[in-house]
Amino acid sequence: MKQSRILFISRAYPPILGGIEMQNYGIAKALSEITETKIIANKYGKKMLPLFVPWVTLKSLFLLPSYDAVLFGDGVLSPVGVFLKFFYPKKKFISIIHGLDITFAHKKSILGKIYRTINIPALKRLDRLIMVGNETINQATKIGILREKCVFIPNGLDVDEICATHTRADLEKLTNMKLDGKKIMFRGGRIVKHKGVEWFIKNVMPKLPENYILIAAGGAVAAKTAGDGNNYPNCTKAVKELGLENRVKFFINLPRKDIKILFNACDIFIQPNIKVPGSMEGFGITAIEGAACKRVVLASNIEGLKDAIKDGKNGILLDSGNAQMWANKVKEVLEDDIFRQNFGEKAREFVRENFAWEKISKRYLEEINRIIL
Description:
Helix content: 40-55%
Largest sheet: 6 strands, parallel
Number of strands: 12
Radius of gyration: 21 Å
CATH class of the largest domain: Alpha Beta
CATH architecture of the largest domain: 3-Layer(aba) Sandwich
CATH topology of the largest domain: Rossmann fold
Shape: globular
Number of domains: 2
């Protein structure tokens, strides 16, 4: 069967670090290994976006005759797709859609209003929307996007990239802490309210033994961000008020090599998300990374986390906001070394079979071929 020729356009791409950047790199690289794929990416962050948009629009006008479809890395550039579609009505335009691509429409700000006015109508005019989570589809239909335009394909990862051999000594060196007799819980990703870090500190940490340590690491959220607000000040305030300075540690903007130490040397990975109006977890790739590193993952049974974590397979789902359930399960898992080891082995294999880019990219290509051929 003839394979589609894809023009992949990303406004967020490495070396800038972040969830969307890593996902865009992963799918672009994987697609390029199985079909002809041209990658045009902004590698310089948000500051260059005003220049990148007109440049990529003009460049795409000349490149499109050689390609069958345009795949956007997220919904921000959907208006570019509508513009290009005017000149190339027979080409297919597809966008990957993350949770924020939908929830941003609810933001009560000037940018939120612009997004509602321009981007949401543009998304409706694209040929297909590849949603990273089923809850993202549900939320999209509430703002008028047709369900039949949406297809769920989960995010993927490079299992061998995230996995590494690290020891407790490596973790001690990174954290500058003596960890003899300590149990380490790791939570990775942006420190925003719906990720549940502040909730966990306030409600679960006081119920856990003194030797249980929480490490939270992720990229800093800009004070004037257009997306989810920075929750780091509230988290540090809660730590101080509860006297948990020796039991809760934050690391901001760690390089990837240090993040790997945390993933591979912690005892368990937690993702205690909570419901926050106007925000949501589109998928939860860090939970998948934790499972790939043979960690037992404890995650809230809400939103996109239900697509990322299959209970009993690559993690354990818990009721969001149920502090006692969380405290009980954390203690149960951390007190059973054999269970953690056996479950971790099983979790990695489940991730490799279901979320490796090799598998996910084939699903992308099948869907793109379906609407083209």
